[in-house]
Amino acid sequence: MTEPITYAAAGVDTEAGDKAVELMKDAVRKTHGPEVLGGVGGFAGLFDASALVGYTRPLLATSTDGVGTKVAIAQAMDKHDTIGHDLVGMVVDDIVVVGAKPLFMTDYIACGKLVPERIADIVRGIAEACEIAGTALVGGETAEHPGLLGVDEYDVAGAATGVVEAERMLGPDRVRVGDVLIALASSGLHSNGYSLVRAVVRHAGWELDRHVDELGRTLGEELLEPTKVYASDCLALAADEAADVHAFTHVTGGGLAANLARVLPAGLVATVDRGSWEVPAIFQLVRELGSVPRGDLENTLNLGVGMVAIVGAEGADAALERCRALGLDAWVLGEVAELTDETSRGNLVAGTKGVQAGAVLLTGDYR
């Protein structure tokens, strides 16, 4: 007689899932305000929509994303408490681009083997970042996929919903000739371009525990630097009437120019001065180790700019002052002009992500 095949024998441990929930639930509850009902463990997360009663015309905004192959670095270093910050940053900061406040978020983790402590570390990181963003973590799912993923492999994804008053929505319709671009510094690589970065590291034969003087720490520590979560700061900046914010762009996959072009109206061009900032050491290291062409770097990595605010010309000084008060490293990146024969000279970036909108021109050289 053959041995019976159980779910556990097939590689799925439901008791480990229960233990993971116990380990993470306190961190998740810290993100809950009075609008969240039902607590942890329900089939669905509940959010009291009466919080929207004060809106005249509330528009719901939603976004979903993951963190790409950055998870491979976390797995290689067996350090899982920061990848959640990356997930939240990738999701909620897309919502903030239209001026929406992220209300709640859910997550999904797929793994080859459910190790409760590892899953709890990931979710704690998600919860910590949700607190920073002022977003409730209302639910999630952890799935064990033996045979599809290795025992130490996992992937993470998330989705969030936010709200913005229709008349306060930000975007291309508000952008005008003469507007000023304000750059907000990134915390590092964030969560894009890691396929390129990992290829460069493999090519160079460097180990993650290698100390790099230019970085002041090990390569692995630099590569795991969490994505900066801008949501609360961007909302505070947008609420400052003197700053006169017209639009934001989140610099993710595709780099600065491709993402900036998406929030410009057709017929306008944003001119970006490369000389306005010094590219952080990690990006220079990637370029040197892999002999990566400048075009590939600009089309893949954020190069030190994580978010851009487009503000009215008269609001630029107030915007910079507000950024300083919020503890943000910010500077004037460029300006918006009419797209003419004169301003279209050079390699324009336009029509990215399927959006036929404005254009971006990168000028000069980096410091």
UniProtKB/TrEMBL annotation:
Start and end residues of each PurM-like N-terminal domain: 59-164
UniProt-listed CDD domains: PurM
Top enzyme class: ligase
Family according to the record: Belongs to the AIR synthase family.
Alphabetical keyword list: ATP-binding, Cytoplasm, Ligase, Nucleotide-binding, Purine biosynthesis
Protein name, UniProt field: Phosphoribosylformylglycinamidine cyclo-ligase
Ranges of residues in domain PurM-like C-terminal: 176-340
GO molecular-function term, one example from the UniProt record: phosphoribosylformylglycinamidine cyclo-ligase activity
Domain of life: Bacteria
Alphabetical list of Gene3D superfamilies matching this protein: PurM-like C-terminal domain (3.90.650.10), PurM-like, N-terminal domain (3.30.1330.10)
InterPro entries assigned: PurM-like_C_dom (IPR010918), PurM-like_C_sf (IPR036676), PurM-like_N (IPR016188), PurM-like_N_sf (IPR036921), PurM_cligase (IPR004733)
Lineage: Bacteria, Bacillati, Actinomycetota, Actinomycetes, Micrococcales
Cytoplasm among keywords: yes
Localization: Cytoplasm
One Pfam family, short name: AIRS_C
Pathway this chain belongs to: Purine metabolism; IMP biosynthesis via de novo pathway; 5-amino-1-(5-phospho-D-ribosyl)imidazole from N(2)-formyl-N(1)-(5-phospho-D-ribosyl)glycinamide: step 2/2
E.C. numbers: 6.3.3.1
Catalysed reactions, as listed in the record: 2-formamido-N(1)-(5-O-phospho-beta-D-ribosyl)acetamidine + ATP = 5-amino-1-(5-phospho-beta-D-ribosyl)imidazole + ADP + phosphate + H(+)
